[in-house]
Design goal:
The radius of gyration is 17 Å and the shape is globular. Helix 1 crosses helix 4 and helix 3 runs parallel beside helix 4. The protein has a seven-stranded mixed beta sheet, sandwiched between helices. It is α/β, with parallel strands linked by helices and 240 residues long. The longest helix is centred in the first third of the chain and has 14 residues. It is built from eight helices and seven strands. The chain starts with 35 loop residues before the first helix and ends with a strand. It has a single domain, classed as Rossmann fold. Helix 6 links the parallel strand 4 and strand 5. One of its GO terms (cellular component) is tRNA methyltransferase complex. It catalyses: guanosine(46) in tRNA + S-adenosyl-L-methionine = N(7)-methylguanosine(46) in tRNA + S-adenosyl-L-homocysteine. Its EC number is 2.1.1.33. Pathway: tRNA modification; N(7)-methylguanine-tRNA biosynthesis. This is tRNA (guanine-N(7)-)-methyltransferase.
Length: 240
């Protein structure tokens, strides 16, 4: 979650139907300049709050040192809202997934300065993390906020929220768990509504778009857009 759109997907699905890092990807690598502080906190904090990717299921209870509901955020950007949500919901544990080093360093800084104990970071492709590390039916929620809308029609196939990825997410949710998406791009919101509505494991919690949940804070980018008359659409679907 950030002032810039984040996650992204690639072009095609494999013939086998299995999601691979070549078939769908939750990001596009961008060159981002890191500040000295981001470098420092990345180096100092990731050994403490980082979870290394490995192609096997991870015990999140062991990672956090307790039993609690687990929420995954895909593409947290610079992490401001991620930190706010984690601080506001101390009874739950949050796993943020982001590939871009400046954002990871920024969230590391927020974790350290805020003394946040219920937030961990994986710096890796979210598709592979969900596919390989997260057991089926184990998550209480998944957040995808302001993914890259890829506005040009020829780029729509690169969007993150597409059927195969939504199916993967739904399989990792526990019954009653939720998938919360938000976008400021109306056409993408319409596509999200269609794609999520077509997944048999998910049911819409609202009649169409959902009211913005209180736990999702407004970003500076979002506030600026609202003042300019731009819309923001939230979608909250639950695992049946």
């Amino acid at each position: 979650m950030t002032d810039e759109h984040q996650p992204d997907a690639t072009d095609e699905q494999p013939a086998s139907g299995r999601l691979t890092s070549q078939s769908i990807r939750s990001f596009v690598l961008r060159q981002g300049r890191m500040s000295d502080a981001q470098h420092r906190f990345l180096d100092e904090m990731m050994p403490k709050v980082g979870v290394a990717y490995r192609p096997e299921p991870v015990d999140l209870n062991a990672v956090f040192g307790r039993q609690a509901p687990h929420i995954v955020e895909i593409g947290f950007g610079m992490g401001q809202s991620t930190a706010v949500i984690a601080q506001a919901r101390p009874a739950e544990d949050f796993l943020g997934i982001e590939v871009h080093a400046p954002g990871v360093g920024s969230l590391c800084k927020l974790i350290d300065e805020g003394g946040i104990t219920n937030l961990r970071i994986v710096q890796h492709d979210a598709v592979e993390v969900l596919r390989d590390m997260i057991p089926e039916g184990s998550l209480a929620g998944v957040h995808i906020y302001f993914p890259d809308p890829w506005p040009k029609k020829r780029h729509h196939k690169r969007r993150l929220v597409q059927g195969p990825f939504v199916k993967l997410i739904a399989s990792r949710l526990a019954p009653g768990g939720y998938l919360h998406c938000a976008t400021d791009w109306e056409e993408y919101a319409q596509q999200m509504l269609e794609v999520l509505g077509a997944e048999p494991l998910l049911a819409n919690s609202a009649d169409g778009y959902a009211p913005k949940p209180d736990y999702r804070p407004l970003t500076k980018f979002e506030n600026r857009g609202i003042k300019l008359g731009h819309g923001v659409w939230d979608l909250v679907f639950k695992r049946v």
